[in-house]
Write the structure tokens for this entry.
Amino acid sequence: MSILSEKKIIMNADAKDKYEAITIAGKLLVEAGHVSEEYVPKMLEREEVVSTYMGGGLAIPHGTKEGKQFINSTGLSVVRFPGGVDFGGDEPAFVVIGIAAAGDSHMEILTNVAMIFTEDDAIERVLNAPTPAAIIEIFEGGVE
């Protein structure tokens, strides 16, 4: 099972708030079998403790330590919100990346995703990618 696949990418989503956005990203991880249903509330719980908004239009929601027991395998989901979602930052999140990391790969995955987005044009490239396959190409440069 690959970390990211076309089935775990939504090109044009809409959410009324960050909790709905996180739930959308989490459900993609559930549907792909990376996590059980119980993981999504742990993602929401994490958001209550500390915002997963990284700045620059990017949010990376993930579960709490207690949520690790609900992870079956490492996976990412990518959801684009062209209208943006308020995560409490300076600007809305336009890209929300759900993360479930099995074992000790959590920090490695987070770091890899963050590194992809340190490039100035990375968020633009994801927002302007014409297809899910094009989004996967952007990530394969940094998350394998």
Summary: The two ends are 13 Å apart (CA to CA). The chain has a mean pLDDT of 90. The longest strand covers residues 75-85. Residues 18-31 form the longest helix (14 residues).
